[in-house]
Amino acid sequence: MADLTLVNANMLYVRYVDAVEREFHLPLGPLYLAKALEDAGFEVDFRDYQRVESEDPFQPHTIADFMADPAPVVGVSCMTNLLPFAVLGLQEFKRRHPDRLVVLGGVGSMSIEAELLRRFPWIDVISRGEGERTVVALMQAVQAGRPLEAVPGIFFRRNGQVVATPPPERVTDLDALGLPAYHKVDLRAYDAYGMVTSRGCPYPCTFCSVAPIWGHASQFRSNESIIEEMRFLHEQAGADLFLFQDEFFVSSKARVMSFCEALEKSGLQVMWKAFGRINLTDLQTMQAMERTGCVELRYGIESGSNRILERTKKGFTAEDAVRVVGEAVRVFRRVDCFYVWGFPFETLDDFHQSLFQMIAFRMLGARILPSLLCLLPQTEIYREEGLADRLEFCRELFPEYMITGHEVSHSGHVSAAPEHAYLFDFIEQHPDLFPGFFHVDLEGNVFPKLRMLQEFGFYPADDGPADPESCGAHSPRVAEPQERMLTARARD
Description:
This protein is α/β, with parallel strands linked by helices. The chain has two domains: 4-164, Cobalamin-binding domain (Rossmann fold, 3-Layer(aba) Sandwich), CATH 3.40.50; 192-455, tm_1862 like domain (pyruvate-formate lyase- activating enzyme, Alpha-Beta Horseshoe). It has helices at 28-39, 60-66, 83-96, 113-119, 132-144, 223-237, 253-266, 283-291, 306-311, 318-328, 348-364, 380-384, 421-429, 442-455, 482-491, and strands spanning 4-8, 12-16, 20-23, 44-48, 73-77, 101-105, 125-127, 154-158, 161-164, 193-195, 198-199, 219-220, 241-244, 271-276, 294-302, 334-341, 367-372, 391-393, 407-409, 414-416, 438-440. Helix 2 crosses helix 3 (83-96). The termini are far apart.
């Protein structure tokens, strides 16, 4: 009998009119938790909901079926886009298993933990932030029958009141965590192999929902630890392409150059992709990355307007972006440029500057990935701009990263089948819990900009085919067969 059933409820699943785009990504976060639990002596029943065999995985009874015969404690990890579905799925699960302790984790519940517990009594505990220490302390307290007040980083109810405990100390030695519990999954069954080389970003971008999770403080893995994991996945899963998922891999020139030197000395022949920052990469850094197998660099540019860049605290100028992207497209096989549009304070003049820059970079050969602003509770823009009272809901349009899998994606808009209307009814009833699905000023701010993006081909025309990579959440493809790239690198 397992001590805990740990469920990964994150998945990349996009429906189109005539197809479903589905990718299986290694569930790194939950597997790190499983490793910490096993190291502490607990038996973990790990289940990855990505692998559910169902024609319609997005019904509450389906995930409840998937979680049948659970351990006494059940932990579910989900991101923001699937938080509404996870909440409703856990309601059905708790109806079937009222004696199980239900723990919700992952980034989806950040900043709304207390209100989730007040409204949804079938959730017993919510974990916040870095979870390796929290989940072990929670299991130790539960099995010993001790009060939960001593467990760091959780929210729970006591006598009808929500109790919040202080956060745990950050894990400063990421190498000490070891590799995730990869033995819990079939490594060769996945399509994309992500890597985490650091945790946390110090930059204060006002719309970012990731940096606040780590308190704007960064910790890094050693080169040896990263390369060891790459080699393990290469040998055990046949992985030849890795995406460094953390936003702060390019934290300094010295760190990147050191990693590239270590990777080159290791003799490991693989390809990799990373997120970079405009103000932290130069030509020498990019050349070292490309020489050691980096086939794509992804930049969060966000706006071509200096006024917007300053207001969102990006830390560089539009002119910096022009210079760096101009160099990058001459070095890498692919350069991705991410833009955010729909800021409530973004004038049409600001937007036109972004649009002009996007067109220019596309002509240079970069791939442009625009994303509608996603208003999440932990972001500064949501808190400081007083947007909670200005939210508008539109069932035909969601930010790219809030696609749930219930809706059918068309050209620049979505629609929901009747059997999935329940989810959007639920979202609309709780705007303060799920603001990421909402917008500010649809008629004056969002729709006019969307029409211009469609006119210039950044979203498919109404009669055009959908682009399965348009949201940027997919593992980006390479422009030629991997075998040819690896052969060329070995020859060089």
